[in-house]
Amino acid sequence: MPLRRPVRTAFAAAAVALLSATAAACGDAGQLQSAGPTQTADSPAKLWPGLRPASSPAYPYDVATRETVKGLTVPGGDIRRIDPVDIVEAELKAHPADYGSKGAFHGTVDRVKDCRAGGDRALCPLLKPYYRDLTGDGRPDLTLGFRLYPTNQTAVRVYTVEGSHLVQVLADNDAILGVELAGRALIERNPADISGYEYRTTWEWDPGQRAMVFSRDEYLHTGTGRRIHKASPSARPSASPAASPSAS
């Protein structure tokens, strides 16, 4: 999958303009002061009206992933009754091209064994599961994460229940700085190559596609001023979490 195309926002510029205007309006005597002439508003100028429209997107980006998990059923329709380790092992089994001996994430297989009783929990790649209603049906859904060894990537998955079936409705692999749940949205924070910036991607439930869909991609200034090293190529899944070249 190619590089995410950064969406440049005007948040920082607007904040600076607002602070400047506020400072100019607050004099020592408490009186309003002029902030200077107001710029005349211009209507949008259309460039190159004769340009031939593109017939296909510049980058292929699958905005929805949906897959019924094979070999698992949901007792009583309660997603909390399924062992997250079983879910991860079901994915490893369903996608041998990714997790087999020649797969990009082959190291995950041996590590998952340590998630079971008697294993070394410090080596277990599975992260803490979170339960929240992301689909709006009033029942909790499962947000799951696990490390993809030997890479520096993390798998982010969301599962819901339909009848007795466990359905994966989001599958994304990337180098992760953090993941947040905000309402019914999932937000990923990823490293960028430029000092003081990061990528943030938002996924939201789409009732039409019955999946969590990519809804916003932002390239934001964090103000840290530190150099973030370029991440190793990441894999972005479509119908399955197969590895494909991409940079974080």
TrEMBL record:
Keyword set includes Signal = yes
Q: Which UniProt keywords apply?
A: Signal
Question: Where does the record place Low complexity bias?
Answer: 231-248
Identify the stretch(es) annotated as Disordered: 225-248
Span of the signal peptide: 1-25
Q: What is this protein called?
A: Lipoprotein
Q: Which organism is it from?
A: Streptomyces griseofuscus
